[in-house]
From TrEMBL:
This is EF-hand domain-containing protein. Signal peptide: none annotated. GO terms for cellular component: Golgi apparatus. Pfam families: Stealth_CR3 (PF17102), Stealth_CR4 (PF17103). Residues 37-56, 463-503 are annotated as: Disordered. It comes from Phytophthora rubi. GO terms for molecular function: transferase activity. Residues 358-410 form the Stealth protein CR4 conserved region domain. The lineage of its organism: Eukaryota, Sar, Stramenopiles, Oomycota, Peronosporomycetes.
């Protein structure tokens, strides 16, 4: 059928398969048209097998090189541990105990990223057949879509055409670049309130769907056209333009700002006075009478209240002029994609090689590599891995060493483990208290609490008894000497001795 591969010959009809229409548009086949021969399935399988074999060879060489580097690192770690001596071995032992008990957040790993990604690249290739998931009625629309991402963009564009109108060709809605975005929660809530059903359907889709509300496209183009369906309210104008010092009231300088915004340009003095009189609340006069010897003194005090948001709402002319003339700030700036690199990584080895080399050369601020491989090959994975190593050859200070990995992959798992540890510790304390209460007599006898108390009491009483006995013996020895001194004749020396004894 000529050079058009999208035309299939069916008996005497030609079917144009390049268009996805509801029906089939027949086309007359001319006798001189020759069908375009297609490569056989066997040739495609052979080419795919050769590409896979070449990729496995490259991956095997890279794996051997990395394993050799790993052995060198392990040797260096062992030498460093040997230099540390006894302290190093003790710290290593306590780390192992902590990891075995479950108190640590990291554990030893026996496999590296290379082993996980290329587990059998040096061995024979597995002959596993890929089982395709069954197509259900619910997922038929998503399966029939050849480009779910593009279909979701077109779906959102149709919704926005109904809400904001169809833009001009020069101002057509463009797709935001693949890069990080900063989103405002209040804007997202407005989108959810306006397209509630579509947002709920998007949340219910487990995978990409042609009728998704694609978030970046929806967010930024809603932000561009937001003023068409969501004009500024008086509260927003008060918060963003009028109340500059955030004190909740308007002073004289801020009243001038309100008059300028309401007029749309430099306001005349008459207009400023009109705005001031309109927003100014009524003055309150307070009269007091004070009796004096000369008579009654009458004091009059005039109070001027502050201008608040409620006073501004009571002035419809100024309020409507503010909403009409306020400037809508541009929240989105269209920029070229000079600082963004985006690649759809395909199965083609040569094409992927050129993409990765271009990424190395450009070194933009943002790099997004989208996995578009239908049949992933280790050769393309090897190219991608080498690109990452060229950009980040060393791990950062926030990454774990090669021989450690996180025990918990998610914060919920960590919190659940902490709760389990606390519950286990509480149960252990309760069990110990129950055992101590039930076997308190045996514990006292085992540890000798009563024997120690009795021994202390006996020792104290024995010491008291011995001291009292010694005192009694000393008194008994002194009394006979005193009696002998009284019976002997008196002499000066005896008198002195008697006095000393009596003393």
């Amino acid at each position: 059928m000529g050079d058009d591969p999208a035309l299939l010959e069916l008996l005497d009809r030609c079917i144009d398969t390049s268009r996805r229409l509801i029906g089939i548009r027949p086309r007359i086949c001319y006798p001189n048209e020759v069908p375009v021969p297609r490569p056989s399935v066997k040739d495609e399988a052979d080419a795919k097998a050769k590409k896979e074999e070449e990729g496995r060879r490259l991956a095997c060489e890279a794996q051997k090189r990395r394993l050799a580097q790993r052995k060198e690192r392990e040797k260096e770690e062992q030498e460093a541990q040997a230099r540390e001596g006894m302290l190093g071995r003790l710290s290593h032992f306590f780390r192992n105990v902590k990891s075995a008990v479950g108190l640590g957040h990291v554990v030893l790993t026996n496999e590296t990223l290379d082993d996980i990604e290329y587990a059998d690249v040096c061995g024979p290739a597995s002959q596993e057949e890929k089982v395709k998931p069954p197509v259900t009625l619910k997922s038929a629309q998503a399966h029939l879509s050849k480009d779910t991402f593009g279909d979701s963009l077109r779906f959102v564009n149709k919704l926005y055409n109904r809400a904001f109108g169809k833009p001009k060709t020069s101002d057509r809605r463009r797709v935001p670049s693949h890069m990080p975005f900063l989103l405002q929660k209040s804007i997202i809530r407005e989108i959810k309130d306006h397209w509630t059903k579509e947002v709920q359907d998007t949340s219910a889709h487990r995978f990409r769907h042609p009728e998704d509300m694609q978030f970046s496209f929806s967010y930024f183009h809603y932000l561009i056209n937001r003023a068409k369906i969501h004009p500024h309210t008086l509260e927003e104008i008060w918060r963003e333009y009028l109340d500059a010092n955030r004190n909740g009231i308007l002073d004289e300088n801020e009243v001038l700002t309100a008059a300028s915004l309401a007029h749309g340009d430099a306001p005349p003095e008459d207009f400023v006075k009109e705005v001031r009189d309109c927003v100014q609340p009524e003055k309150r006069e307070k009269v007091r009478e004070i009796p004096t010897p000369e008579g009654t003194l009458r004091l009059s005090e005039t109070l001027t209240p502050y201008v608040t948001l409620e006073n501004l709402e009571r002035c419809p002319s100024v309020r409507d002029a503010l909403v009409k003339n306020v400037r809508y700030e541009t929240k989105v700036e269209l920029m070229p994609e000079t600082e963004v690199t985006f690649h759809m990584l395909s199965d083609n080895y040569n094409f992927a090689w050129k993409q990765m080399m271009g990424t190395r050369a450009r070194r933009t601020k943002f790099v997004c590599i989208n996995d578009d491989m239908k049949f992933p090959s280790t050769a393309v994975s090897q190219i991608l891995h080498e690109l990452f190593l060229s950009i980040w050859p060393k791990r950062s200070q926030f990454e774990l060493p090669y021989h450690l990995k996180n025990r918990y992959a998610h914060i919920d798992e960590y919190n659940a483990a902490q709760e389990r540890r606390q519950i286990a510790a509480g149960i252990a304390v309760v069990i110990l208290l129950l055992i101590a209460f039930v076997f308190r007599a045996e514990l006292r006898a085992l540890f000798g609490f009563q024997d120690i108390a009795r021994a202390r009491a006996a020792s104290a009483s024995q010491l008291t008894h011995d001291f009292q006995q010694a005192q009694d013996e000393e008194d008994a020895d002194e009394n006979p000497k005193a009696k002998e001194a009284n019976t002997t004749p008196t002499s000066p020396k005896n008198k002195r001795r008697t006095r000393k004894a009596s003393a």
